[in-house]
Amino acid sequence: MPAVTPTKPQKPPQDGRNSVRIIAGGWRGRRVNFPDMPGLRPTPDRVRETLFNWLQHSIVDARCLDLFSGSGALGLEALSRGAKAVVFVEQAQMAARALQSELSRLGGALKGRVVEMGAARFLRSPVESFGGAFDVVFLDPPFGRNALEEYVPPLAAGDWVKPGGLVYLESEKSAGVPGLPSHWELLKSKSAGEVGYHLARVNARLATQTDSGDE
Length: 215
Hints:
By secondary structure, the chain is α/β, with parallel strands linked by helices. It contains six helices and nine strands, in the order E-E-H-E-H-E-H-E-H-E-H-E-E-E-H.
């Protein structure tokens, strides 16, 4: 009888691969799983920690929009830290369904809404259909496409952010500081490794002469 070659045991996945750790708040230390998909790149722990230090006085009871949510790391961190509600926008069906599953597992299904839709299509929707303007928006599109230049204008034109609201913008470090609409104010700008990340405040638009009724 020929010798039977023993089956080689499967190695367990590397710690943290395809999962991200929630840093602080009610879900502190919990790991969130996400599918192994090309281009799905959660914001690194170090960057998220700095970002939420920036947002510490603005996140409690905030309504947040997480565009290009992917793993949901930013929106879930916001919910963990006391955000009132988060709308997660994710085009990839596998990622959107995994995020919905993780929300249910964490007990956040009532505060998180997953919208399976591309960001461009979402931003063409009436803002009222998603509860009105948001207090905080996370804009973290795929790297290498100069995507911030594409998505910031419709985000501003559609009045998706309340006056005084905050927008987080993330891109590859080499892209530099993104161009901002005239009524947006850059508050913070840093980099870590290959990631450049920035925080802007949306100010009220100045009334034009036509708006004010002047001739």
